[in-house]
C-alpha cells in the first residue's frame, strides 16, 4: 500500500474542489495498485466529497450517498447502480483487508460527471443534434427473419427528428435513405452540420437466449487506458482519441438517455456501457450510441417493429436530451 505523491494530491484536491469537498480531506486519500491501476480508498474519497458510506450487505454491497446521488457498489464487480440506473464501471470495485477501493479513473470519469454534471461555457446552448441511423445499404445490421436493423433505425431516426424539430432543435441525419455510409464519415457529417450532440441509433439481437435477452443500453466512449464493456469491432488500442475530449459530457449524456429510455418505456435496464466504436472515437462533440432493444426477443422485437412503440421510444429519447440540455447549460 502506498500514499499518493504530492503532485497527484494537488490534482485530486482540484477535482474534489469541483464538488465542494471538506477542507483538507484530499490530502488523506490512500491508494493501492491493483493490476497496475491506481485505486483510492472509498471512505477517504467520500470524506473529501462530503459523502457518506455504509454497507447495505456486509462485505458484499456498499452505498455511497450525497444529497443528490446514491451509488450502490458490488464488491469485486464492475456493476454499480447510480440513482436507480445501472452503470458499468471501467474496473471492479475492490475489497481488500476490510477496506473498499474504487479505481481513480472511475471516480474521475464515471462518478464525478454524474455527481457534478459538466457545464457548457456561458452562452453555448444546445441547438443542433445529428442523428445517426446505423448500418444502411449493403450493411443490413442485425436481421431477424425478414426484418433488418437498418430499416427500423432509420424509421426511428425520422420519428425522432420530427419530435426534436417540434421541441425546437435543428436536426441533421447521417443518412435519410437506405444508403451505405462509411463509419468515419458519420461523425464528420455531424461536424459539418455544426451539431452540438451526436446520437447513433441501433437495435440489438442475439442468436442465443433470444427468449430472455432484452432491454436497452447506451454507450459512451471509453476513456484512455481503460477497457471497454464491448470490444467487438471497435478497433485496436486504448489510447486517447478525439472523442475523449468530451468524456464527462459523453458519460452524462449516456446516463440521461439510459434513464429516460428505461424509465419511460419500462424496459429492462442493461446499463450505461463504454466502447471505442468508430462513430464515438471520431466525434467532435459529445456523442453516444443507443441500443434501443433486442429485435431477437419475441415481445420486444414485435414492439420495435411497431410504429407506435418507436414513437414512444423517440419521446423517451427527446426527454433524455432535454434533461441533458437543462443541466449542462449555464444558469440551469
Describe the structure in your own words.
- The chain is α+β, with helices and mostly antiparallel strands and 332 residues long.
- The protein folds into two domains: 2-115, 2-Layer Sandwich (Copper Amine Oxidase, Chain A, domain 1), CATH 3.30.457; 128-328, 3-Layer(aba) Sandwich (Aminopeptidase), CATH 3.40.630.40.
- Helix content is 33%, strand content 26%.
- The chain is built from nine helices and 18 strands.
- It has helices spanning 6-17, 42-48, 104-115, 149-166, 185-192, 247-265, 278-281, 298-304, 307-328, and strands at residues 2-3, 30-34, 37-41, 52-57, 61-65, 70-74, 79-82, 85-88, 94-96, 99-103, 128-133, 143-144, 147-148, 170-173, 197-204, 216-221, 269-275, 287-294.
- The strands form four sheets. It has a six-stranded mixed beta sheet, sandwiched between helices. Strands 1-2-3-10-9 form a five-stranded antiparallel beta sheet. Strands 4-5-6-7-8 form a five-stranded antiparallel beta sheet.
- A hairpin with a 2-residue loop joins strand 12 (143-144) and strand 13 (147-148).
- Helix 6 (247-265) crosses helix 9 (307-328).
- The chain is globular, with a radius of gyration of 20 Å.
- The model is unreliable at 1-26 (pLDDT under 50).
Amino acid at each position: 500500500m502506498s500514499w499518493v505523491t504530492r503532485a497527484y494530491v494537488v490534482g485530486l484536491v482540484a477535482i474534489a474542489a469541483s464538488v465542494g469537498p471538506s477542507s483538507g480531506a484530499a490530502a488523506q486519500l490512500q491508494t493501492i495498485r491493483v493490476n497496475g491501476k491506481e485505486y483510492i480508498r472509498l471512505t477517504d474519497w467520500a470524506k473529501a466529497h462530503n459523502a457518506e458510506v455504509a454497507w447495505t450487505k456486509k462485505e458484499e454491497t456498499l452505498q455511497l450517498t450525497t444529497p443528490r446521488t446514491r451509488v450502490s457498489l458490488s464488491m469485486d464487480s464492475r456493476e454499480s447502480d447510480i440513482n436507480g440506473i445501472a452503470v458499468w464501471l471501467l474496473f471492479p470495485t475492490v475489497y481488500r483487508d476490510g477496506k473498499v477501493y474504487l479505481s481513480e479513473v472511475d471516480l474521475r470519469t464515471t462518478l464525478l460527471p454524474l455527481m457534478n454534471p459538466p457545464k457548457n461555457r456561458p452562452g453555448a446552448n444546445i441547438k443542433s443534434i445529428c442523428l445517426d441511423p446505423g448500418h444502411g445499404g449493403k450493411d443490413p445490421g442485425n436481421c431477424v427473419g425478414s426484418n433488418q436493423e437498418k430499416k427500423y433505425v432509420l424509421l426511428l431516426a425520422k420519428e425522432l427528428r420530427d419530435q426534436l424539430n417540434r421541441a425546437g432543435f435543428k436536426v441533421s441525419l447521417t443518412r435519410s435513405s437506405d444508403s451505405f455510409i462509411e463509419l468515419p464519415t458519420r461523425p464528420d457529417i455531424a461536424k459539418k452540420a455544426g451539431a452540438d450532440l451526436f446520437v447513433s441509433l441501433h437495435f440489438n439481437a442475439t442468436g442465443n437466449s433470444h427468449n430472455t435477452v432484452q432491454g436497452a443500453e447506451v454507450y459512451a466512449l471509453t476513456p484512455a487506458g481503460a477497457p471497454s464493456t464491448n470490444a467487438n469491432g471497435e478497433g485496436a488500442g486504448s489510447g486517447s482519441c478525439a472523442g475523449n475530449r468530451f468524456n464527462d459530457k459523453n458519460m452524462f449524456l449516456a446516463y440521461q438517455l439510459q434513464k429516460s429510455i428505461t424509465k419511460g418505456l419500462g424496459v429492462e435496464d442493461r446499463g450505461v456501457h463504454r466502447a471505442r466504436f468508430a462513430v464515438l472515437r471520431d466525434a467532435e462533440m459529445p456523442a453516444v450510441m443507443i441500443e434501443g432493444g433486442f429485435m431477437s426477443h419475441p415481445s420486444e422485437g414485435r414492439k420495435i417493429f411497431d410504429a407506435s412503440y418507436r414513437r414512444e421510444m423517440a419521446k423517451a429519447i427527446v426527454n433524455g436530451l432535454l434533461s441533458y440540455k437543462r443541466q449542462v447549460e449555464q444558469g440551469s
